[in-house]
Write a structure and sequence with these properties.
The chain has 122 residues and is an alpha+beta fold. It contains 1 helix and 7 strands, in the order αβββββββ. Strands 1, 4, 5 and 7 form a 4-stranded mixed sheet that branches. It has a 3-stranded antiparallel sheet with strand order 2-3-6, with no helix packed on it.
Length: 122
């Protein structure tokens, strides 16, 4: 009986540990557009992330037609992801936004779901 309790306890520890083994890590975050001006190379966004995370940076990939913004946060775990935080950030592009479309992107190698911004410039 004691062996069964020990094995059951070990199984629970393995299951709990498996869910946390990916943390800490950097991962992509959602964002919403605060403001943009086609004549400016600065796009103001609000990065949204959970309570276990801290803002790292916001990267931008640019083409002639599209600007993809990738906010990156550092996350310590999943226990406080339901606590929403936001940070206002200015992203500087290589050239003015012009008539390019703003899109959201994922951090390369990130397994999380990509989120689209709630507002697009255009």
């Amino acid at each position: 009986m004691r062996a069964a309790v020990v094995l059951a306890s070990l199984a629970v520890l393995v299951m709990i540990g498996a869910g946390c083994s990916d943390y800490p890590k950097d991962e992509g975050a959602s964002w919403t557009l605060r403001s943009s001006d086609p004549s400016s190379s600065v796009v103001d966004i609000r990065v949204l992330y959970g309570g276990c995370s801290t803002f790292r940076r916001a990267d931008a990939d640019e083409t002639d037609r599209v600007v993809i913004i990738h906010p990156v946060v550092h996350t310590e775990g999943t226990t406080c992801k339901s606590i929403l935080q936001g940070k206002d950030v200015s992203v500087t592009l290589r050239r003015p936004l012009g008539d390019r479309i703003l899109r959201s992107g994922c951090l390369v190698g990130d397994e999380s779901i990509c989120h689209s911004p709630t507002t697009q410039a255009g």
